[in-house]
Design goal:
The structure holds two protein chains of two kinds.
Chain A (H helix, E strand, L loop, with lengths): L3 E8 L7 E8 L5 E5 L6 H9 L6 E6 L2 E5 L4 E2 L2 H4 L1 E4 L11 H6 L9 H4 L6 H14 L15 H13 L5 E5 L7 H18 L3 E5 L2 H7 L2 E6 L2 E7 H6 L4 H8 L2 H5 L1
Parallel strand pairs in A: 3-9, 3-10, 7-8, 8-9
Antiparallel strand pairs in A: 1-2, 1-4, 4-5, 5-6, 10-11
Chain B lengths: L2 H30 L6 H13 L2 H12 L4 H10 L7 H25 L3 H9 L4 H29 L3 H7 L9 H10 L3 H31 L1
Helix pairs in contact in B: 1-5, 1-7, 2-5, 3-8, 5-7, 5-8, 6-7, 7-10, 9-10
Classes of the chains: A alpha/beta, B mainly alpha.
Chain lengths: 260, 220
């Protein structure tokens, strides 16, 4: 049996274009879907709607047999009830908490994603172990007592990633995870990120405007342009047979990857 | 020194500050949320005491709490007494009159907390209330403290509305500011000078602390 995240919705704004999205992502097998498109095309809006941070006016979203959102039945689960992990573009680390406490933040709540918690709090030792594991995996072990402002961009990015996956979310939503980094760090993390994601095996949706990131991590790609899905399919299909000129322009800039 | 009046003044100010902390913080949290709509009307109501003469607010409180009005009758049924010219009456009036001095600094402090941090907490499965306690409050506490200090100081110096709603009952509603007025009327300038100097010293100390706190906030 396979289960899917299925979303089909429309978010209208008072000013600016209406965003329409339709996508499908397996939630059982690990795969990465990239939402790609030029800036301002609504990629982040789509991701925020999936997280429950923004609300469409029309449509529905379901995760396996759970209904997350249904405009006609007025169903709308809160972000807390969806069991997702969301990585913000600028990381949004808690400035008043140490690296350790940032990563442990979602483990100390009683309402978090169901798979880990099953209605009870994680024990103190359980938290220590889980955070320690992530610190080691992401090479942050010596930094656990530091505060976010004492970290480099790449370190902040790793802390944010560790914090996001610590409560074992069922779906990862990454908003431009590498865009706030300088280019050498970005190249390092681009190589590392796919490996880490496949090790965790959490189905992932990643927003990016950079086609070389799509080829580096993603299995499937959804091309958004002017608030609409222009094409979707496997990375090979879309990159080799773009549906129209607009898609070709968006996915075309991959000299870096093709050369390497 | 009129110690009865001093004790009473600080009792009124303490009650006012405590009540405004409990009631004002949720109101400020609601006002600080992003969004438009008709919220400006509530903001205007909260700001009213800044421009309204205390006599006007005092008049309406007397009218609302009087024996012929509905809230006044309910209060009588619940507590067996009337609100005007009692300590409780003075506190109620002081709370209403100090609303902007608490809620406006609270709102400003809460609005400085980056919305993304709150959303990050929600996405980690932390409830709205726990997020407020674990993220918003630790990041906004200096501004909230400033609001509490300002409220307390302002409540200590309250005059017009106390006189309107409380009258001038020694030990019950006769606060230090009212006592000064009374002393001057009775030509007791020595007593008035003593109390005035006390309030001046108090106000100067509090405002110095407040500005020191704000300077620290800017640097942090």
């Amino acid at each position: 049996m396979t289960a899917f995240l299925e979303a089909e919705f429309e978010r209208r704004f008072l000013a600016g274009p209406t965003i329409q999205a339709a996508l499908r992502q397996s939630v059982v097998e690990f795969s990465v879907t990239a939402l790609v498109g030029p800036s301002g095309c609504g990629k982040t809006t789509v991701l925020r709607c999936l997280a429950g941070l923004d609300f469409p006016q029309r449509g529905r979203m379901s995760f396996g047999d759970e209904i997350w959102f249904d405009a006609s039945r007025r169903i709308n689960l809160r972000p807390q009830q969806r069991g997702i992990g969301y990585l913000f573009q600028e990381y949004a680390l808690f400035p008043h908490l140490s690296v350790f406490d940032n990563i442990a933040f979602g483990l100390t709540s009683s309402t978090g994603p169901r798979p880990l918690r099953r209605g009870r709090r994680t024990s103190r030792a359980g938290i220590r172990e889980r955070v320690g594991q992530l610190l080691e995996m992401l090479q942050l072990a010596e930094l656990e007592a530091r505060y976010p402002h004492e970290l480099s961009g790449g370190q902040q990015q790793r802390v944010a990633l560790a914090r996001t996956v610590a409560p074992r979310p069922r779906l990862l939503l990454l908003d431009e995870p590498l865009s706030a980094l300088d280019s050498p760090t970005r190249a390092d993390l681009r190589r590392e990120l796919r490996g880490v994601l496949s090790e965790w095996a959490i189905p992932t949706i990643i927003v990016t405007h950079d086609p070389s990131e799509v080829t580096a991590f993603a299995d499937h790609v959804v091309v958004l342009c002017d608030g609409r899905v222009r094409q979707q399919g496997t990375v090979a299909e879309v990159f080799q047979h773009p549906a129209d000129a607009a898609v070709a322009r968006i996915v075309g800039n991959v000299d870096e990857v093709r050369a390497g | 020194m009129d110690w009865t009046a001093i004790r009473l003044t600080f009792a009124v100010a303490t009650c006012t500050t405590a009540i405004l902390f409990v009631l004002g913080l949720p109101l400020a949290a609601w006002l600080a949320r992003p969004g438009r709509g008709w919220r400006f009307l509530i903001e205007a109501v909260v700001a009213l005491p800044l421009v309204l003469p205390p006599t006007v607010l005092g008049f309406y409180i007397l009218w609302a709490a009087g024996p012929h009005s509905l809230p006044g009758r309910w209060y009588k049924v619940l507590f067996g007494s009337q609100l005007p010219f009692t300590f409780q009456g003075v506190v109620v009036a002081s709370v209403l009159y100090n609303l902007p001095f608490a809620v406006r600094p609270f709102t400003a402090a809460l609005a400085t907390v980056d919305r993304k941090l709150i959303e990050a907490s929600w996405c980690l499965g932390v409830s709205r209330l726990a997020t407020f306690r674990r993220v918003t409050l630790p990041l906004a506490w200096r501004g909230i403290l400033a609001g509490l200090v300002l409220t307390f100081a302002h409540a200590v110096g309250e005059f017009g509305i106390v006189l309107m709603v409380g009258g001038n009952r020694p030990g019950v509603t006769r606060t230090l500011a009212v006592a000064i007025y009374d002393d001057v009327q009775a030509l007791d300038y020595t007593a008035a000078a003593r109390s005035s100097l006390f309030l001046l010293a108090f106000a100067f100390t509090v405002m110095s602390l407040l500005h020191l706190l704000q300077r620290r906030t800017l640097r942090a």
